[in-house]
Structures are given as C-alpha cells and as structure tokens.
Amino acid sequence: MTSIRDIARQAGVSVTTVSRVINNNGYVGAATRARVEQAVTALAFTPNAHARRMRSGTSRMVGVILPALDVPFFGILAHVIEQELFRRGLQALICCTDESPDQEADYISMLLAQQVDGVLAASVLADSTQYQRLVDAGVPIVAVDRALPGLAAISVAPDHQAGGRMMAEHLLQLGHRRFAVIGAPRHSPPVQARVQGTVQRLAEAGLRPQVALGTAHDFDECRALAAEVLAGDPVQRPTALIGTTDIAAIGAIHAAIGLGLAVPGDVSVIGFDDLPEARYVLPALTTVAQPLREIGVQAVAQLVARMAGEVAVLAELPLRLVLRDTTAPPPQYGLA
Amino acid sequence: MTSIRDIARQAGVSVTTVSRVINNNGYVGAATRARVEQAVTALAFTPNAHARRMRSGTSRMVGVILPALDVPFFGILAHVIEQELFRRGLQALICCTDESPDQEADYISMLLAQQVDGVLAASVLADSTQYQRLVDAGVPIVAVDRALPGLAAISVAPDHQAGGRMMAEHLLQLGHRRFAVIGAPRHSPPVQARVQGTVQRLAEAGLRPQVALGTAHDFDECRALAAEVLAGDPVQRPTALIGTTDIAAIGAIHAAIGLGLAVPGDVSVIGFDDLPEARYVLPALTTVAQPLREIGVQAVAQLVARMAGEVAVLAELPLRLVLRDTTAPPPQYGLA
DNA sequence: TTGTACGCGTTATCAG
DNA sequence: CTGATAACGCGTACAA
Predict the structure, then answer these.
(1) B308 pLDDT more than 80
(2) What is the CATH number of domain A4-47?
(3) pLDDT (mean) for A185-203
(4) Domain ranges of chain B
(5) Beta-carbon-side half-sphere exposure of residue B56 (alpha carbons within 13 Å)
(6) Residue A28 has what pLDDT?
(7) Strand pairing partners for B119?
(8) What is the distance in angstroms between the Cα of A166 and the nearest Cα belonging to chain B?
(9) Fewer Cβ neighbours under 10 Å: the N or C end of chain A?
C-alpha cells in the first residue's frame, strides 16, 4: 500500500505538506502543491480511510439493519437509504438479519466494532437489550418501518394501524359484511398493527373477520391460506379478502381465481404497500399505498440530524387508498 | 470510546495481556484471564475494527457493486451475496450505482480508500479504466451477472445468449413465425446478449423479429413498447412476444390483454429470469430460469478463493425453461 | 510556507 | 506466564 509517506518522499516534501494538499487546508506553495499532486497521481495514491478514522474518531459509516433484501419492500427501502447516505458521503453497512434474532445480535456487535456513527433499523428483535448496547456506546439510532421495542428512539414509519382501518373502511363502504384477513409474516409488528386496525374497524361495524396469518414473506403460503378460507360454503364464504401486504393479497387473488371465483365479481381483494408488484397482477390490485421512498429519505434525514446533535421535524407519512381493479360491491349486494 | 488500555488499567494488567485474552492466543493465567474478561464485560468493550485493520493490513471487507437494489433481480442477488459474505466473517459494502457511470467511479474510489480485500461487480461501465485501479491495487475482482469489459476477471454469469436462443427455440417449436422482442434496459449487456441469441436463433429459421428496447428496468415502458408492436394489422402482428426479462414480459402481457388479445390464445409471451414476479401475473409467465441464488453463492466462493490466492473451479450455471401459462401454438396454427 | 513529532487502538516481537 | 515497545497511516499541535 502506498502511503502518505511514499508521496512525501517522491515529491521531496514532508508528510505534513502532503496531508495539507490532500485535505486542502493550511498554506501550501503553488509549486509544492503541484509536485505533490503529481506524485499522488503518479503513485495512484488513495488515503487510507481506516487511518483517518483512527485520528478523527468518526467513521462516516452507518449501519442499516433490515430483515431482508430479497423481498421487494425492503429492496426498495435499502436502495433509497443507501443512495441518500452515499449522497451525503456516508457509507452504508447493510445488514440482512434474515429474520434471525441471533444474526441481528451479531450484526450489532459488528457495527459496534466498526464504530458506526449511526444506525437505521427495522428490527425483528422483541426486546431492547441489543440496541441498548448501541445506545450505551452513544450511537444515534433511528427506527424505520417499525418501532424499536422498549427503546425511546424515533421511528420513521407510517401509521400501520390506520392503514389496517383504511382497508376495512373501503370494503365496508362497498357493502361487504364477510371478511377474511390474509397476512404474513405473522411475527412482523407492522403486519400485526395492520391486522389490529382492520379488526378494530370491523368490530366497530359489529363484524369479525377470519384471520389467517402465515410465517414468511411468501406468496405460496398466503395463497394456501386464502384457498382454505375460501373453500367453505358459498353463502358463508368471505366476500372480501384483506391482505396485510401486497404479496399476501396477490396470493389471495390467485387462490380465488384458482377456485373458479371471479375477482372482484365474487371476492374483492385489497392489499397494503403499493409495490410495483401490485400492478403486475391481473386484475391489478387495489391497495393502500405507503410512501416507501419518502420513508427512506426521512429516516436518513432524521439520522443525519441526530448525528449532528440536532433534531429534525418528522414530516407526515400519509397513507393513500389506490383504487385499481380488485374491489367491488359484494355479489349479493344488489339482491339484499 | 473505551479501549484496550482502559481494560488493562481496570484489570491491573498490561495491554498485551488484554490483547491475548481477546484474541485467545498466547499464554494467560486463569486468574488473570478472569480479571480481564470481567473488565471487558464491565466496560462493554468492543475491539476497534479500524485499529485492527491498521495492524493487520487486511480489512475483511468486500465491495459489492450493483446497478440497483430496488429491482427484484438485484435485490435477490444482493441478499444472497451479503449473507454468504457475512457467513464467512466478511463485511459487505453494498454500492448501488443507480446505473450511473460517474457514481460507479466514485464508489470505486471509496472502496480503494476502504482497503477492501475484494470486489464483486455487476458493472454498467463501458471500459476497464476504473476497475483497472482496483487491479493495480492488487484487489481481486469477480464479475457477477455480466463480464467486466476489457478485464480478464472471471465472470460468474449464465450464458445469456444461450438463454436468448432458448426463448426463441421454445416458441419456434410451438409453431410461431412472427416474433417481437420486448426488452429493457437496452444498455444492459445481459439483455443485449439475450436479444442477440434470440435474433440469431430466429435467423437460423429464416425469421427476423421486431426488436423494441426501452431504457429502464421499467414495467410501464415495456408495456407501451409491446402495445405499439401489437397495434398493427392482425395478420401481420406478432404471435409471440419475447421479453428479455420477466418484468418486460409482464409488461407485454398487460399490453396484449389491454388490447383485448388473449394470452396465450392470440399472443404467446415468454420471459427471462424466473423471478417470483413471474408467478404473480395471471396467466403465470412461462420463462427461462437462471439460477440466481446459485450465481450469488458461486460468485462469493470464487472471490473468497481469489482472496486466498487460490482458484476455485466454476460450477455450471444452467438455464432452464419453466413452462407456465403464457405460451401456446399460434392461433392460425391449426388452420395452416 | 514547511517540517518534526506525537497519538489514535491494535497486535506482534522480544525480553523477562 | 506477563510486560514494554514498535509499527500500521494519518492529521495536527507546535516549532522553525
């Protein structure tokens, strides 16, 4: 590795001068500067980031803890976050926990060792002990998509429970009375919050949905769940399926159509997220959109503010009903 | 930041002893070890990774250069790569170039500064000058999904051109004679290779497809492209649409159905990749599957071997036709 | 305007 | 079995 010292020798100056040229501070004579710059390009010198961090005590690195990258939701979130950080000269250390608490704990140890200046996290952990280690080390944390249990960190996330209510509301207004909630992954707090919102809103209408929750971010599982729900007696069968995510809802559409039911003629289906995938299905999925890219942008803005010892105001993260082709009044509605 | 020195003081030993305890090498008396370990937990000490790197000269970090994370293909690839690296105690530095050559160059400078031990890259660059900087610094590079132009790096990628041929072959065997290729993004070498394979195979059958290529990884654009292609005279209109990716093919399906055409009754559609999304559309997409997860696994294995100065044999990365519901003989076939 | 010397947190070498 | 010390590459008081 060629170091600042090699440059100094090559240019016939001291290391201090080289440092000054590289960082553009302090006085350096024009001729000297030129000689140094020439040596820098000649030897293809790049300053060693680790050595810099040793001196400065700041790493310009940010941990980004996410359950996965191979599901569209988190892929998009990771993309936005990474770009926003890079734009600010911050290096993202993306950590896929793969929904494993042990792995998440390991990642936190690693981030501590890396001396990260901040952490963005969508955690799958149930308690705060792991994140407390970061707090104790003075590392600012911002929660994304979901709160950090037991921690007083700011959380950049939409109101998932309100989202659950919105889904129910829309179908209620269309006249539906028999509902099922198809959702996954069951352990995900945002999913739970949506289910809770839906159940609550339906309860206000004197109704109670069937709730079928699966374990993974998985299309097949949700399809199977929905197929089971739809298999019963046609007059008892739900006329409205509420997916806790778009993928769950897409699974539900497949289940219905596989059973020979028309969507939305026989069953209405609604999703949550408004991923690109919502438009890939046919009929295209009606869904509640969350401002995913805005969430990423806001989360980074919050964290950067925290890292600078400031507190930024958190913008609204509004949910929005996106009407497409999978919801309609229930079949018997006209006959009631 | 609490350092090894703080631990030494707390435990009443020298820093050397602390280091020995932490790294579990050299002789340390049981009592001494206990005292040190107690101090470590008491002060919640985590060794500073940067200082370690300074001494060792090795960073245990790997650059992962990808065009994006917000498209399913690269999201999955990134996920697999990140997990494989972490499993081996290597830290992934994921870099989204967002298809920008300038940004990619900036990332390479950053990776050099980070003293990465290796790089995995799906580049959008047209020449080798940027990657040559890594080569000059002695950093092993493995290309993923596509070769690195002008560089003698190993490339872990399926035979995209053969994939293009497979798509044509399947439709030819069904009896189709009028083809269009719908693809994006146009500047992507894998896409180009697939188009080339398709065109070549069709030429061998004395046929020439229309080729319509868009600029982004974009559903809407491909749908528009396909709509244009299908808009003409029904007897001239292609009976088979070849998507260079699943997303392009899904766009094509929407175009056809939007025009009142039946899939696969009036038009057959085939895709490439076999993403989960291929199964979300209705009818489900027939496609050529590439072993995406295997590509990630192999790429990491190759890189790790290179980093150890070894060379691993590269396993086959077979493509496979996945028959689903979007291809059938052309409508006039029975009447010919 | 330029240079000398120290310290950031580790680990390896060598001495005891 | 344990400790003192040098060195990794850099930035910055301080001196010249």
Answers:
(1) yes
(2) 1.10.260.40
(3) 96
(4) 4-47, 56-157, 160-289+321-334
(5) 13
(6) 87
(7) B63, B141
(8) 24
(9) C
What CATH number belongs to A160-289+321-334?
A: 3.40.50.2300
Question: Taking all atoms of strand D, which protein residues have CB closer than 7 Å?
Answer: A 1, 3-5, 15-16, 19-20, 22-23, 25, 45, 47-48, 51-52, 54-56; B 12-17, 20, 26-29, 31-33, 51, 54-55, 57
- For B159-185, what is the mean pLDDT? 97
CA to C1' distance (Å), from B134 to D7: 26
B259 to chain A, any CB pair closer than 8 A? The answer is: no
Q: In Å, how far are A100, A245, B126 from A217, measured between CA atoms?
A: 14, 9, 37
Can you give the distance from the CA of residue A302 to the C1' of nucleotide D12 in angstroms? 32
Give the Cα separation of B147 and B131 in Å (integer).
Answer: 12
Instruction: Please name the member of A50, A57, A250 whose beta carbon is closest to the beta carbon of B115.
Output: A50
Name the band, by pLDDT with cuts 50, 70 and 90, for residue A25: confident
Residue B334's pLDDT band (cuts 50, 70, 90): very low
* Cβ count within 10 A of residue B56: 9
Classify domain A56-157 at the CATH superfamily level. Answer: Response regulator (3.40.50.2300)
Nearest residue on chain B to A100, judged by CA atoms?
B83
Q: Which of A241, A264, A261 is nearest to A251 (CA)?
A: A241
Which nucleotides of strand C lie within 7 A of protein CB? 1-5, 7-13
Q: Rounded mean pLDDT of A152-156?
A: 94
DSSP A288: E
**Considering the entire predicted model, what is its pTM?**
0.96
Q: How far is the CA of B334 from the C1' of D15 (A)?
A: 96
Residues 12-41 of A with CB under 8 A from B: none
Residue nearest to nucleotide D6 (CA to C1'): B55
∠ CA B266-B268-B269, nearest 5°, is 140
User: A120 by DSSP, 3-state: which?
Assistant: strand
Q: Which of B54, B70, B107 sits opposite A50 (nearest CB)?
A: B54
pLDDT of residue B336: 43
Secondary structure element (H or E) that encloses residue A112, with its range: helix A101-113
Q: Where are the beta strands (DSSP E) in chain B?
A: 61-66, 91-96, 118-121, 141-144, 154-156, 179-183, 210-213, 240-243, 268-273, 286-289, 320-322
Residue with tokens 């609550």: A200
Q: What is the mean pLDDT of residues A169-182?
A: 97
Q: Tens digits of per-residue pLDDT, B18-50? A: 999 999 987 888 899 999 999 999 999 999 999
Q: Is the model's pLDDT at B73 over the cut of 80?
A: yes
User: Are A36 and A17 contacting, i.e. CB atoms less than 8 angstroms apart?
Assistant: yes
- Identical topology for domains B56-157 and B160-289+321-334: yes
**pLDDT tens per residue, range B232-256:** 888 889 999 999 999 999 999 999 9
- Residue in B closest to A62 by C-alpha: B93
Side chain identity, residue A31: A
Find chain A residues with C-beta within 8 A of B254's C-beta.
282
What's the confidence (pLDDT) of residue A1?
Answer: 79
Average model confidence (pLDDT) across chain B? 95
Q: Is the pLDDT reported for residue A53 higher than 60?
A: yes
Of A139-153, A321-335, B26-40, B276-290, the range with the lowest mean pLDDT is: A321-335
B188 close to B157: Cβ distance less than 8 angstroms: no
pLDDT at position A240, please?
98
Task: Find chain A residues with C-beta within 8 A of B277's C-beta.
Answer: 277, 280
